[in-house]
Specification:
This protein has 450 residues and is of the alpha+beta class. The chain contains 15 helices and 22 strands. An eight-stranded antiparallel β-sheet has the order 13-12-9-10-11-14-21-19, sandwiched between helices. β4, α4 (89-97) and β5 form a beta-alpha-beta unit. The radius of gyration is 21 Å and the shape is globular. The structure holds adenosine-5'-diphosphate.
Length: 450
């Protein structure tokens, strides 16, 4: 086992890793930009190293600075969290070249899954069901139009390098194809340096269902059921739950096995998420994330496992601490993402927290790096906390979420908390009767924002 690990991230996820490491008796090194000198992850870690100015490119994304921080402190392994360098195959290569351990999958697996066309092709070959669409990349508008006719509109044009909801455009008909095709390509080029796109049938009423998988890198893998992340704004998740209200035990077992077998066959290491759209009882693969997800705590809650601990164990060469038959679901869990954003337009709202009080009590977990007097810097993501609740069943989890949201105090900045208070009054949310478009419609009708 490692003696010391470095966490190449900030905010709640850096704290999350510090907590797992401390329980395992492993020392932690935090890295931070000059804007984060007073951040909670810096205060909670055993040691810290300043790695650059506020801009993410010059600090949390600076590979030389992070590797130097390892050398200086003697950290043996790096946990990347999510975002930043977590899915950067080049970084993993550099880490390995310096005889350090990356707590995550291999550079090759990250590369395969990071290119959506290659990922889809790989998954198809491994027997995972995919969204119908083009066979690989689409280079010309003529070809795009032909595919539109073949599969029938609407279709979605997606940048192969896309992520975070960027580089995707829907064409409702042949007239819209030209603009959608060129915009998706341009977004792919400007955001990810790659203008290759592919086309999929656009599903009109699917749910977003993702399967948590975990592999030991030696051909053994398990699944930890699904998360339903259908409540999304601009393709970004805001409310996640496990198990999925629309998924039966039989469906879970079947798709879970398909996913576990697929990652076992490629000797996948550590945590991964296979994302699907689910419509009329069918699953359609859209992408795989080769890292810990923001919403991993709902899975931890219902299975009673620590996924970060497990990541560290496997990265150090130890066996996984569970097998498929050990994993049984207990109750229901919901997470809401609390962002420092001003409604109705969700504009970022950095600033000083004048008062912070986290909710508590049975079945309540608040993952946040906030504290009284903390100033949220304007340079990074606006996620400031995740409130996770766990109950014996979905109604109990919903009641607990409402109660916990009522206890939470975040003064000084606007947050997305009022959105969740409002959503918990909605019949469709209470019954679980929503799909990936539900929240956008609701926002238009109720907030009039964009
Ligand atoms: P990203 O990598 O940017 O997150 P994904 O491929 O995971 O992109 O898709 C994100 C979201 O976009 C999905 O959860 C879903 O809401 C929507 N989406 C993606 N593909 C389709 C599709 N074929 N039909 C309908 N919606 C889609």
């Amino acid at each position: 086992m490692f003696n010391k690990i470095l966490i190449a991230n900030r905010g709640e996820i850096a704290l999350r890793v510090v907590r797992a490491a401390r329980e395992m008796g492993i020392a932690t090194v935090a890295v931070h930009s000059t804007a984060d000198s007073d951040a909670m992850h810096v205060r909670m870690a055993d040691e810290s190293v300043c790695i650059g100015p506020p801009s993410g490119t010059q600090s949390y994304l600076s590979v030389p600075a992070i590797i130097s921080a390892c050398e200086i402190t003697g950290a043996e392994a790096i946990h990347p969290g999510y975002g930043f360098l977590s899915e950067n195959a080049g970084f993993v290569q550099v880490v390995e070249d310096h005889d350090l351990t990356f707590i995550g999958p291999t550079a090759e697996h990250i590369r395969i899954m990071g290119d959506k066309i290659t990922a889809k092709d790989t998954m198809k070959k491994l027997g995972v069901p995919c969204v119908p669409g083009s066979d690989g990349g689409v280079d010309t508008l003529e070809e795009a139009k032909r595919i539109g006719e073949e599969f029938g509109y609407p279709v979605i044009i997606k940048a192969t390098a896309g992520g975070g909801g960027r580089g995707m455009k829907v064409a409702q008909n042949a007239q819209e194809m030209e603009k959608a095709f060129h915009t998706a390509r341009a977004e792919g080029k400007s955001n990810f340096g790659n203008d290759e796109v592919y086309i999929e049938k656009y599903l009109t009423t699917p749910r977003h269902i993702e399967i948590q998988v975990f592999g030991d890198g030696k051909g053994r893998a398990v699944h930890l059921g699904e998360r339903d992340c259908s409540l999304q704004r601009r393709h970004q998740k805001v409310f996640e739950e496990a198990p999925g209200p629309a998924i039966s035990a039989e469906e879970r077992a079947t798709i879970g096995k398909v996913c576990a077998d697929a990652v076992a066959r490629i000797n996948y290491t550590g945590a991964g998420t296979i994302e699907f759209l689910y419509e009329n009882g069918e699953f359609y693969f859209i992408e795989m994330n080769t890292r810990l997800q923001v919403e991993h705590p709902v899975t931890e809650a219902i299975f009673g496992v620590d996924l970060v601990r497990e990541q560290i164990r496997v990265a150090s060469g130890m066996e996984m601490s569970f097998q498929q038959e050990d994993l049984t679901i207990n109750g229901h869990s919901i997470e809401v993402r609390i962002n420092a954003e001003k409604l109705p337009n969700f504009s970022p709202c950095p600033g000083r927290i004048t008062q912070y009080h986290a909710p508590g009590g049975l079945g309540v977990r608040m993952d946040s790096a906030l504290y009284d007097g903390y100033s949220i810097p304007p340079y990074y993501d606006s996620l400031i906390g995740k409130l996770i609740v766990h109950g014996r069943d979905r109604p109990e989890a919903l009641a607990r979420l409402k109660r916990a949201l009522g206890e939470l105090i975040v003064d000084g900045v606007d947050t997305t908390v009022p959105l969740f208070h409002a959503l918990l009054e909605e019949e469709d949310v209470l019954s679980g009767g929503y799909n990936i478009h539900w929240l956008e419609h609701w926002l238009e009708t109720n907030l009039g924002g964009s």
